[in-house]
Write a structure and sequence with these properties.
single chain; alpha+beta; Copper Amine Oxidase, Chain A, domain 1; D-Maltodextrin-Binding Protein, domain 2; 7-stranded mixed beta sheet; 5-stranded mixed beta sheet; 20 helices; 28 strands
Length: 540
Amino acid sequence: MKKVLSTVLVAVLILGFAVIVPANAQTNKLLELYIGEPTAYVNASAVKLDSAPVIQNSRTLVPLRFVSEQMGAKVTWNSAKRQVTIVDGSKTIVLTIDSNKVSVNGKTVTIDAPAKIISSRTVVPVRFVSEQLGYKVKWDPVSSRVLVSNFDTSIPVNKNVKGTITVWHGWGLGTAEADALDKVIAEFQKAYPNVIVNEVPVDFNNLQNKFLTAAPQGQGPDVVIGPHDWIGQFAKTGLIDPINISSLTLRANYITTAVEGESYSGKVYGLPESVKSDALFYNKTFVQTLPTSINDLLNANQKYPVSGGSPLVFDAGNFYHEGWLHFGLGGGIFNGTNYKDVSPIKNAGAVKAFQALLDMKTKGVMPATLPDYGTAMSLFTNNKAAFFVTGPWEYANLKKALGDKMGVMVIPGGKPFVTIESTMLSKYAKNKDAALEFMKFLTGGINGQSSYNAAAYLGKTIGHVPASVNAYSDSGVANDPIIKVFSAQAAKGVPIPNAPEMQAVWSVVNQILPTVYQGKLTPANAAAQAYQQITEQIKK
């Protein structure tokens, strides 16, 4: 991917066009383009592309029309000379098809990837063009994402902080996680010698309620570490502060899914330490050719038969583990940030997902009786299932049971729920500046001394899947087979909505899924009933 980054390319229609968009040097702009995805983002707002970025011959191709418009440049095509001319203010760049020689304001420079015509598109190196026009290019290997910005996306560092901060966490005492956290704190204090960190382990089952009670009385911590789905309640009750860092900067430094999970009502309330989601484990005895689409799984009885068993198993009565199907087929939950409107829970995609769940049982893809988590685990480990949808916490157990027969991959077309381990800044923190620096440090948003990256360390030491894009510059993280799969899966997943209203969703959908599986409710009626019951609970 380093080679891809160094020579990222951009595509444009051969037919001549000229688009001028005034550049605003005072406004930060971040363009995000994903390989294989026809949707790009401009300052986090979705924009449809004429064609999806692709990788060909170790080069990334993205639409020049989109990029040039966003950069405020004028682009023209000369069919006679087979040249693309890009004009921005006082700079003129002329690229000739199939030539490594480029003219920049009349001077010839050599580039390593010539402009080409591929599928009626002219492709040119976006890194070269972007940097010539004052933009920066960054590659996100987790999400296969190209970031183009007109500002420095690095997270600012304040080494002048001093004093004492208190950190609460539920990572236990004397556990591998707690020991790793101790070492990260030691590194932080080396990098910030004027800050003392008081670490307070709290029983995880009591952590949320203890913070809710203690924080308003000024007896809580400066930083609390916990799952991101606590954020809605904490923010709604005014117990945590929004993060005082540009959301665009955060998007450039963390997996986008994680930043979205830290957001509530339009503000970012936490920095993400790690991500966790389901992925697809498989038994190589039955799976010689990997599935490439969600339809391959929905029809796994045809390609991956299992004598005396089922091709696919997962905890089908648990919305968390069924989420990959719900979102993968277009279902939703809330209407944007309107947490009172759950109309997406009954949309066409949701009905399709309910129908797919029923069809999988009918066709023999799934067991005749609704499998709970324990049953699914047992079937898979006893060679009675080809595929099992679960999370990284089961890797060691599954490896022990199946040995080299076990494999794991991203669910093709699936979009599972994502949980984010979050660092949150208390509204009542006594030392907010130092607390924020600790949050940046712990999550790998910034490097300490000797290029130390805490997120990379936690990934290599205790298997946390880093939310920090920077952590993946460490080869030990980038090449870890489990982190590689689960980071890519989390990037394609859906963060659990952190709104308090989500409790009603869990309650209702977990009751309805078994009735669909048992054929007691039609998919359409199940979706309608889910909407009605959730809405009634939310209104109470």
